[in-house]
Amino acid sequence: MSKNLAWRAAGAFIVIFFSALYLVPSLRSELPSWWSALFLPQEKITLGLDLQGGMHLVLEVETPKAVESHIERIVEEIKEDLRSEKLRYLELKRVGTEEILVTLMREEDGDTFRKLARSSYPDFDFKSLPGEDERRSFTLSLQPRAKSRISKMAVDQALETIRNRIDQFGVSEPDIRPQEDNRILIQLPGVKDTERAIALIGKTALLEFKLVDEDHSVEEALDGNVPPGSEILYQVSVDPQTGRERKIPFLLEKRTVLTGEYITDARVQIDSQYNEPYVSLTFDSVGARLFEQITGENIKRRLAIVLDNKVNSAPVIQDRISGGRAQITGRFTMDEARDLAIVLRAGALPAPVKIIEERTVGPSLGKDSIEKGFKSMIIGGVLVILFMAIYYGFSGVIADVALLLNIVLIMGGLAFFGATLTLPGIAGMILTIGMSVDANVLIFERIREEVRLGKTPRTAIEGGFGKALVTILDANITTLIAALVLFQFGSGPVRGFAVTLSIGIVASLFTAIFVSRIIFDYIYVYQKVKKLSI
Amino acid sequence: MEFIRPGTKIDFIGKRKVTATLSIAAIVLSIVILLIRGGPNYGVDFSGGVLVQVRFDAARSPSEIKDALSAVQLQDSIIQEFGESGENEYLIRVRETEVELAGIGEKVSNALRAEFGAGTEIRRVEMVGPKVGKDLRQKALFAIFYALLFIAIYISGRFELKWAMSIVMAVCLVFVVYVASSFGMSITWLIFLALLVTLGLCWVLNLKYALGAIIALVHDVIITVGVFALTDREISLSIIAAFLTIVGYSLNDTIIVFDRIRENLRRFRRRPLAEVMNGSINETLSRTILTSLTTLVVVVALFVLGGGVIHDFAFAMLIGILVGTYSSIFVASPILLLWEGRAQTSARGEAGLLRRLFS
Predict the structure, then answer these.
(1) Chain A within 8 Å of B161 (Cβ-Cβ)?
(2) What CATH architecture is A208-332?
(3) pLDDT band at residue A255, thresholds of 50, 70 and 90?
C-alpha cells in the first residue's frame, strides 16, 4: 500500500475513532469502571431545554430601587452624623431617586457640614442650593459612577441570593448567569413545578419588624391623616373556601427596628395544637441583642412582622425576649412554609426583580420532540442512502458510508465542544445529511464526465476530485457564513442550530474530500479494480 | 442510472420571458399580501406576549376554551389548533397588553385545569416581555444585516476575483449605513438601504455576477416571506434562522452555475453568451436537481414527521429550497444575460457613435 494512502487512512481513522469515543457516554447510561480510569470522555451530549424539558427565565433587577434604598440608608447615616456633630437641621430627606436635601438650622454650621460631607460621603456631589438659604441648604447628588457601582452590586447580590435559593430548592445543574442591562439568565432543566420555582425566585423576601403605632387611630389614617413617621400596611389573607382576599389595615411606625439580615436560620415546624406548619426564625448574636432590647423596651406594644411590605402578624410583646427566636405563622401549606424558610435563609433580594422572559417546556413535549426529530432523521437518511446507492451504484454506497460517518462526527463534535443539542439542532443535522450529499454528487458528476471523455478509472477519479474541490469549498462557505452570523446573534435553540450546521458542514467537507478519496483510492488504485461503478 | 442524459439541451434561457413574468408576478403577489396583512405575522418572539401550548385529554372546541379563559379575563386570546389533528393540542396566544405578562402562563394553566380537569397538560409556555421582544427584533435584524454584508463581500470577491473591489464596496456600504444610522434610521430601513447600496455598487462597479446572485437571493426571500404571509404562519426566531440558511443554500446553487458559465466562457470565447449559458446550466443540471432532491427528501421527512414545534421551520426550508433551485436556473443567469446584452449594445452604441463622430 502506498505510504501516502496508509497515512491518510490512519489519519481519517483516528479522527473517526475519537469522535466515536466522545459519542459513547451519550449512548450508554452506565460506563464501565475502567472507562474513567483511562481518562476517556464521560459527558453525555448536553440537551437543550426544548429537548429535556425545563425552564428558561430572564430577570431584570430593578436597580433604581436598590439605589433608592441605598440613599435611604445614607440619609440615616447623615442623621447620626449630624447628631454626633451637634448640627441641628430643619430638613433632611431623600429627593427623587438620587439626591438628598439637607437644610441646617444655623448658617454657621454650613462649613462644618461641607467638610463632613466632602470627607465622609465622597460618592456624592456637594452643592449649595441657590437662593436666600444658600448658606444652610445643600443637596448631595449621587455621582453616576457610584450609581453604576451600586447597580452592579445589586445585580451581583441578587444573583448570589437567587443562586442560594435555587440550590436549596434542589434543581440539578441549574445555570445562572448575569447578562447585560442588569439582567440575570436562569436555566433550570427538568423543573416540574414552575409556579413554585417562579415564586421562589421572584420573591423579594424583605423581612422587617416594625412597631405598631398605638398612639394614633387607624381609621383616621385611612381617611387621609397619616401621622408623620407612620405608614399604613395591610395584612392580606385569602379565605381558603371562597378564595376571596381580605385586607386588614395596620398603622405602623415607619422606622424598621429589625430586619431579616440578622437571621441565621429559618426552619419549618409544626404547631402541635393546630397541626399547622410555621416558620421559626433564629437571629445571630447582634440580632438577638437588638431583639431583646426592642422587646424589653416595648412590653405590651404590638410588634408587626412585615414580609415584602405586607403585614404577616402583629403579636403583642408580653415579655423581654432573649435567645433570639421568633415565629412566623399564617395559613401555610407545607410547600409554602418550606419555600418561605428557603428565601429567609438565603436572604432578601437587594431590589425587586421582574421576569421579562420565560420559556418553559414540559418534559413530555421534550421527549416527543427528540423522538420525532430522530425519527425524521432516520427515515430521511434511509431514503437518501437508498437513493444514492441506486443512482450511483457502488460509488453511491461509498457516499453513504461517508454520510453515516458524518453523523458520527457531528455528534462526537457536539460532545467534544460541549455544545448543546436543540430541536433546531436536530433539524440542522438533517439538513447536513441532505447537503453533504451535494459534495459527493459534485465529485461523482465530474468523475462521470471524465469517464465519458474516455479516461481510465484512476485518472477519472483524480480529475473528478481535483476539479470539484474548489467548487465544493465555495458552495459550503456561504452556508457557513450564514451559520456563523446566526451563532453570533442567536440564542438558545437558534445557536444550537448554528453550531450543528457549522460542525455538519466541516464534517461533510472532511468526509467527502478526504475520506471518500481514501476509499476510492483503496479500491480502484490499490486493488486496481478495473470497472468504475458510478 | 442517470436522470439527465449527457448532451441534454433544454433551452432555459429561451424561456426567460415566461419565467421572468412568473417571478415578477410572484414577487408582486408577495408584496401585496404583505401589505394587505399589514406586515409579516410576528410571533411572540418579536411582538411580545404569551404563548401557551395545551394538550387536552379529550376533544375541546375553541369556544369552550375561550369560556374557560374568561374566568381570568383572557377570553380575547387567539386560539388555534396545533400539530396533528386528533392530538387535541391547541395554542393560546395572548398579545402584549397592559396586563402584567409575568404569571399569565400560570393563570392560563390554572384556569384551564380548573375547567377541564387534571388531564389538561401544559406542554409549553413562552412569555416575552416588550423589552426582550424589542431586543430580539434588533438582534434578528442585525443578523440579517451582517449576513448580507459578508455575503456581498464574498460574492463580489469570489465571482469577480476582484477582492480589492469587494473591500471597497464593503467599506462604502458600512460608511453609508453608519451615516444613515446616525440620523436615527430604524434598522429595517437600514437593511433596505444596505441592499440598495449593494445593488447600486454592483451596477456601478460592473460586478455583474454579484448582481445576478444578489437579485436571485432577494427574489427567494421575498417569495418565501410572501408564502408565509399567504398561509398566515408566524415568523419566529427559528424562521429567521431558516431564512438565513436558505440564503446560504441558494447561493450554493448559484455559485455552481456561475462557475460553470465562467469556465465555459473561457473555453468558448466565440460563442454567443446565451448559448454558453444554456450549455452551462444543462451541464450542471444533473447536479443541481440531485442535490435539491436529496435535501428536499430530508426536509419533507422533517416536515411530515418532525412534529408541530419544528413544522414551520421545515415549511420555510421546503419553500426556500424549491424557490432557490428555481432562481438559480431561471433568474440568476438571465440577469447576467441582460447585463451583458446592455453592455454589448452600449459598446456597439459607443463604437457607432465614435465612428459617426470621426467619419
Answers:
(1) no
(2) 2-Layer Sandwich (3.30)
(3) confident
